[in-house]
Amino acid sequence: MSSLPGPVDPARLRSVLDGRWAGVRDAHREHLDERFLPVYGETGDQARERISRLLGELPVELGIGAGFPTEYGGGADVGGSIVAIEMLAQVDLSLMVKAGVQWGLFGGAVAALGTRRHHDAYLRDIIAGRIFGCFAMTETGHGSDVQQLRTTCVYDPRTETFDLHTPHEAARKDYIGNAARDGRMAVVFAQLVTGGRRHGVHAWLVPIRDERGDPLPGVTIGDAGPKAGLLGVDNGRLSFAHVRVPRDMLLDRYAQVAADGTYSSPIENDSRRFFTMLGTLVRGRVSVGGAASAATKSALTIAVRYGDIRRQFGAPDADREVLLNDYLAHQRKLLPALATTYALTFAQSELVTALAEVQGDDGTADEHRQRQLESRAAGLKAAQTWHATRTIQMCREACGGAGYLAENRLPGLKADTDVFTTFEGDNTVLLQLVAKGLLTGYRDEFGSLDGWGRASFVAEQVREMVLERTAARSLIERLISAVPGRDDEVAVTDRGWHLKVFEDRERHLLDGAVRRLRNGAATKKDRPFDIFNDVQDHVLAVAAAHIDRVTLEAFVAGIETATDPATRALLSRVCDLYALSVIETHKGWLLEHGRLTPARAKAITGVVNGLLKELRPHMRTLVDGFAIPDSWLHCAVLREEPGRQGTMAAHDTADHP
Ligand SMILES: Cc1cc2nc3c(=O)[nH]c(=O)nc-3n(C[C@H](O)[C@H](O)[C@H](O)COP(=O)(O)OP(=O)(O)OC[C@H]3O[C@@H](n4cnc5c(N)ncnc54)[C@H](O)[C@@H]3O)c2cc1C
To answer: What is the rounded distance in angstroms from the CA atom of residue 498 to the CA atom of residue 291?
Structure first.
């Protein structure tokens, strides 16, 4: 391993990380000033008031409605709209979620599920923020399994209206963003019934408040109450008592109900139709994953910069106490998390590019690419939100007592991102979706997420997957094929070896899951639930291994986009750290399965420590590469930098928080 060349200009990292939508990122950096930053210590009412006001004040230069067609005032730039949400997440997470609900979920559902007449009537006002709305899917009784929603919408041909009804308490719409205070309309998901037949879950555009903001007749609106975070978002509850909804308010891109009540849809199977509808809403998931990484970058920037000014304990013969970032234990916390954040940034970039390609034109794409996109979006949402939760907590601890004070930002980041692992799809449920996409027999039969239990016969047909490679296909194949047969002949920093280990782990886990599912199908024929439930842990491990591989491959491809040799060398070393950190984490499994010898496993720990030492001088550069404006960090302890720099003489005892 050659040593790293000298310092790298953070601007070069920035240009690699900013990528294709650098212009959108720069517009945010330029136009979002202090007014848009979180206010510490405000009440829930104050936060809601402030966020609602700021939503209307977002500078037009940001192109917040970028994802919509130009004819309604959008920018026809799907990727740009996702990046805009990511950028808002570095400013204020309530603002980001509120914008995500309005333009992503609500507006996105009208655009994706509605047809021309809905677009003509509403999209312009939605984009301009003249109609605020909600995305009302979840019910108190059903959040993950939304196919089982209990709200009904029954068509009556005599009045040519639907009867929207909440039959019982568990069918109440719950947690709904924009419902408690600002929403005037809602996209409501319910079971469609016509001519006495159920056709599964569909969506309607339903007014919920009048011009004065009072609930419309038959609509009951409640407040979801105090939450752990996201104080500025008005989450609420909605119930409907036989509310009449005109026939043309059915968002009817995927299914139509004629005046006489005749139902028609180009997709016959109820389940397939519903998951096709959900698939068009994939942008929400992509945004949440990206926003989680954006918040993680804020936390890491604060922790790394604090670790560069905060000193504790003295080294013998030194006249100054030691900087936190000089401790190996501190580097062990921050640097692998930083490396993973870089890796996920490249994976997210690839995902946004794929989204822009698949949905960029008229929102239609071949089914295979659409499914692949959904699976990737689900997996990266889970990976990025879990990484955010873990890393922000770690950064909080890395800043000691200072990390616990609201004025230093980290408590807010922690509280506000916590729920990202749950909304837009619970992570565990999403990983099952990823795994199902890899079990080709299952995927071909059902297309997407469906109850495990119904598919006992599919388990018998499950086949091994063909690894679908990411960008830089040929590069990755070349690197892997250059790895010699015997592991001990190749350095643990060899990129081809990393790729091979990641690929082997995924393939081995998948083969094992397939074998166990087939055996289960043979012996538990009458217990379809058990066939899948008994291998659920294994299936989740397959999904996690898959996401790890996709992420590493994206990092490898991302390095190729750096033109400056020093920047490439630094990124390559960060990639080594990412790959070896994952290998270290799964050392037990790799040893158990003969993928790693004990000697090599031990060597990896030493190599990781060496990498930490080598990357230590670049820690600040690596966070500066995120290019978060100083004022956006909104962190008191960084503004007081000089006051924290104790000398042995002035600070010979520990600080008291
Ligand atoms: C702040 C906030 C804002 C929200 N905003 C909106 C909104 O605007 N619109 C909207 O429609 N919804 C919204 N939601 C709802 C959100 O999408 C749901 O909470 C989420 O989908 C999870 O559903 P649930 O709460 O019913 O959890 P559950 O589905 O009950 O899950 C609980 C636990 O069970 C586990 N679990 C569930 N099924 C399985 C399984 N098959 N196998 C293994 N484990 C399983 C999960 O992993 C999880 O740990 C919001 C929620 C919150 C908290």
So the answer is: 28
pLDDT digits (tens, 9 = 90+) for 48-84: 999 999 999 998 788 788 899 999 999 899 999 999 9
Does ligand 1 have an atom closer than 6 angstroms to the CB of 533?
no
pTM: 0.94
Q: Which of 250, 287, 248, 208 is nearest to 113 (CA)?
A: 250
**Per-residue confidence (pLDDT) for residue 1, from 0 to 100:** 57
175: Cβ below 6 Å to ligand 1? yes
Active-site residue identified among 424, 503, 506, 553:
424
Q: Which residues contact 377 (CB under 8 A, 6 or more apart)?
A: 282, 285, 286, 289, 351, 355
DSSP assignment letter at 132 = -
Q: What is the 3-state secondary structure (H, E, C) of 579-600?
A: HHHHHHHCHHHHHHCCCCCHHH
Q: At what angle do helices 78-89 and 22-31 cross, to 10 degrees?
A: 40
Give the pLDDT of residue 52: 97
Please name the amino acid found at residue 222.
G
Strand partners, 152: 165, 191
* Both structure tokens of 22: 């650098």
The pLDDT value recorded for residue 453 is 46
Is pLDDT above 50 for 647? no
